[in-house]
Amino acid sequence: MSPDIVPIRLPATAIPSRQDRPAAPQAVGLHRPAGGDAGRPAAFPLIVLLSSVGTLAVAAAYAAGREGWPYLGALYWPGELLVYVPIALRAYSRRLTKPAEGFALVLLLFAQQTLLFRMYSPLELKFPDELQHWRGTVNVIHSGTLNQPNYSLPVAVHYPGLEALGGAVSASTGLSVTATAFIVAALLHLLAACALYVLCLRIKADWRVATLACIIYAAEPHYMFFDAMYLYQSLALPFLLLTVWALRLLRSSGRATGSWVVLLIAIGVVTVSHHVTAFVMVALLGSLAAAGLCRPRRGRELRPMAAWLAATAAVLAWVLLVARDVPGYLAPTLAQLRGSAAGLLHGQLGATAPGAAPLVEPLDERLATIGALGILVFLVVLGSLRLWPERHAEPWTIPLIGGALLIFVAGALRMVASDGAELSGRASTFIYIPVALVAAIALRGIRGSDTGRHDRGRRGLALLGGAAPVVGAAVILMGGVASGWPPIWDRLPGPYLVSGFERSVDPQGVAAARWALGALGPGRRWAQDSTAYSLLATIGDQNTVRTVAMLFDGQGADAAARSLVKQEDIQFLAIDLRDSMQLPASGAYFPVDPNADRYISPLPRSDLEAPGRVAGVSRIYDSGDIYLYDLRGSAYER
Amino acid sequence: MSVERDRFARSGWLVGVVVAVPLLGVVNAIGPQPFAALGFVANLTVLGVAGGRALLGRTGLSAVERATMALALPIGVLVLGTIATAALRLHLDRQLWAGLVALTAEAAAAGVLSRRGHPGEPRNPRWWRTATPLDGHGILWGGSLAAAGAVLCGAVTLSVWTAAHQAYPAFSALSAIRVAGAERLVRIELTSEETAPTRFIVRVAVGRAKADSITLRLAPGVTWRETVPAPRSAAVTVVAYRGTRSRAPYRQVHLVARGNG
Q: Cys-Cys with A353: which of A343, A633, B13, B133 at CB 3.0–4.6 Å?
């Protein structure tokens, strides 16, 4: 163990053996038996092989989705479980005796899950959120500045960290922005995994706990897809973890200046990269500062307070001077939360609230979600009870327990808010950090306390004890995937779906967006459905309008439509006739859809063709399903 | 790790790094690819490794922590450095980024050079020492890892192949737009994304004049472009028929007449 790592004192049963300690000078080879606690030397490569077979199974399921092969799609879940469960079991196993193998398991899981994510769309960016930052990066490279408007995500212009990084890598290496996005996103995901590992190691000084925490966190609902994307949050998240790690490092003797420099760099990167992560950083450092101050005078810690002040000053300055549109950007989400809270007061829970998405997941996935939440809640409570006696010795104990108990908030959010699954998923990226650590502490305790049970001849209990980790790991993983992204109808790639996010990105839509940019130039004002909203704003660099549903009601240029066109300065209209063939997969045809989740039949084709009959409207593009109209000078503008 | 194995502990090696960094920066700034990319990556590596060493030293940090710093520092410097230079209204391009990375890498290497000989450095036992597999397990290790590699290659190949050959409905796109700045011209485009070379007839009618017909054959992925004169006061209708005998319009666009132009 490094001499400067200050561990939380463990209960007697959980004190790691000398061989467990990470920096022991006598640490031996990766797979060389060490005393009686040695693991099976060949376990690791076999786990690599097993998890690779799982990755192949998921690849086959993806291929089945694309090609329409029957039955092979069913390989998805076995593949996911084969990737995760053997790694999780090895991390939990007493046979794991080498820190190197523990960290190798973390890296293996990272590599396999990154492959699972990228194999969904291995040749191009399809996820709308990634396309938004692809556009921002292209703008940086083309303009040589960071202030080019990004119509697809205006607030990102004021959080240009990812675009700065992507632009630098793309311009310096000559790689395309798409290839750059693949590489940068993978590196940031790797950095997040490493940062979580070193943070847990610094806090707990137990490599087994750090390994288990990383494995548990990898089952977080958004970890495998959303958090691995080329997004501004993906850059901010590892630096949030490094902020806390550097703060912890300050406890070490010596190198205080260097630690402060690292801390300030991390604070800086979070501040300029992502708004919500920046606010989480302020809250997190605030809780650590408060914990440091609420101690007897002699044991008071002032460094967290200084770090919190620095972070608060940086975030406040950035929001007040640069990113002044952040409150407006976050206002709808906050209003939604307020509305959900008000609904709760009126007895409307989750899916029963007006406008709430119906629960469409199959029963087994809902059960897995609830089961995963239940297991984690149990582990968090158990881990908190184990940590509680250490609260006087270790000032970070209370914030750690408090953060982990936020899992109740995540669960409640899922039940209470009308868009609870989405909000809960987004929040889980942050909440699962302490949850994973406290749950790992609980698992470490369980593992330590059942030593020798097998020797007592209780075969039934032993069998049960052997099956429980398998079932537990499977449920945690299934629950995470089922409650994360992509949703069930989007889990496999496949043919075009109306309003299906990445499933709606097809050559016809992309061609229309490219044509719009080439023929009309950037920044034109458009009305369109959800899919075109994403493609025109990103690939087409067009200035799309969100509240446009009334232009698709078949009434042509009535008073409301004319008023909207003039008020929003709408110049062009994109129509996709496929909206008359399918119900929207996501529940909404338009970016802001007053009838979301209430459609019982597709939009009438006559409604979609109505704008083409309005006087003065030119149809300037026709690709069969997609019509683009020029509204300038038409009855819409009169 | 012993002094001999720690390259940053040898002054000759360090001086070599200090000399090489600006040269790599020049290659990165003006060299051809892929040498420019190699220079960029090399300087980022120096920045990460030397920067972490200069700031935090070696003692007390685990191998994973050092590796994490080596990855995080270049990212942090690129992000904050780019934003700082953009705030100074400098044009962001390859030369600027090459200079930024080379400058910070040089500072990091110089920082390590200046810290050499500090107490406690560089002797620090490694946490993890790799070792050759025990007798009899080498084949199992090698075989398992090779099989895993082959399986992963198969998975990636399957994904790439099926994604590249995913069948989407074929389509062709017809467009017409008045040319900006010279609005007496209309630019017509027909892009074929059919599955095979396809013959089209394009009929262009300007105002009340008789429509002109153009017959063309387009391979998949090819765009045909034509610019025709058309005053703003005249409506323009363009109809594309697929095949040579088809009477049903396949694609149709029209531009309404505007004013007296």
A: A343
Retrieve residue A51's tokens. 């998890």
What pLDDT, on the 0 to 100 scale, is given for residue B225? 94
In this structure, what is the dihedral angle of CA atoms B63, B64, B65, B68, given to the nearest 10 degrees?
A: 130
Q: Is the pLDDT of residue A27 over 80?
A: no
Joined together, the tokens standing for residue A384 give 């908190």
Q: Any idea what the CATH number is for the domain that residue A567 is in? A: 3.40.50
User: Which helix (DSSP H) or strand (DSSP E) does residue A387 occupy?
Assistant: helix A363-387
Alpha-carbon distances of A619 from A528, A573, B11, B174, rounded to whole Å: 14, 9, 71, 10
The whole-angstrom separation of Cα A511 and Cα A392 is 63
How many of the other CB atoms lie within 10 Å of CB of A306?
A: 17
Could you report the per-residue pLDDT of A249-287, keeping only the tens digit for each?
Answer: 988 766 788 899 999 999 999 999 999 999 999 999 999
- Residues B190, A633: Cα–Cα separation, whole Å: 25
Amino acid letter, residue A117: F
One domain for residues A476 and A401: yes
Domain span holding position A340: 20-25+38-230+325-450+459-490
The token pair at A636 is 């819409």
Closest to A433 measured CA to CA, from A467, A396, A388: A396
What gap in Å lies between CA A208 and CA A519, rounded to an integer?
Answer: 58
> In chain A, which residue's Cα lies nearest the Cα of B30?
A172
Cα three-residue angle B89-B91-B96, rounded to 5 degrees: 115
Q: Which two tokens stand for residue B19?
A: 């000399």
CA distance linking residue A281 with residue B147, whole number of Å: 43
Residue A516 and residue A463 in one domain: no
- A570 lies in some domain: yes
Residues A574, A436 within the same domain: no
pLDDT in tens, A445-455: 998 776 555 55
A528 and A556 part of one domain: yes
What is the predicted pLDDT for the residue at A331? 84
HSE-CB of A264 using CA atoms within 13 angstroms: 11
- CATH 2.40.128.110 fits domain B171-255: no
Q: Please tell me the distance in Å from B207's CA to the nearest CA on chain A.
A: 14
The closest alpha carbon to A4, from A208, A257, A197, A250, belongs to A250
Cα distance between residue A148 and residue A137, in whole Å = 10
Q: Is residue A405 part of a domain?
A: yes
How far apart are the CA of A480 and the nearest CA of chain B, in angstroms?
23
Work out the mean pLDDT of chain A and round it to a whole number: 87
Q: Is residue A253 part of a domain?
A: no
Chain B residues within an 8 Å CB radius of A4: 60
Task: Please tell me whether residues A354 and A465 are part of one structural domain.
Answer: yes
Which one-letter amino acid corresponds to residue A69? W
Interatomic CA distance for residues A421 and A221, integer angstroms: 10
Q: Are residues A193 and A53 in the same domain?
A: yes
Which of A175, A622, A625, A636 to mutate: most B Cβ within 10 Å? A622
Global confidence as pTM? 0.89
The DSSP bridge partners found for residue B212 are B204
User: How far is the alpha carbon of A346 from chain B, nearest alpha carbon, in Å?
Assistant: 47
Cα A35 off chain centre by: 42
Domain range summary for chain B, segments of one domain joined by +: 7-115, 171-255
Decide the pairing of beta strands A626-630 and A618-622: antiparallel
pLDDT average, residue stretch B178-195? 87
User: Pairing mode, if any, of strands A543-544 and A525-527?
Assistant: parallel
For residue B158, count CB atoms less than 10 angstroms from its CB and return exposed for 0-12, middle for 13-18, buried for 19 or more: middle
Closest partner CB to A167 (pick from B60, B92, B141):
B92
Is the domain of A130 the same as that of A179? yes
Domain presence at residue A251: no
Residues shown for chain B? 261
pLDDT > 80? residue A342: no
What's the sign of the alpha-carbon dihedral B89, B91, B93, B96?
A: negative
Total of domains in chain A: 2
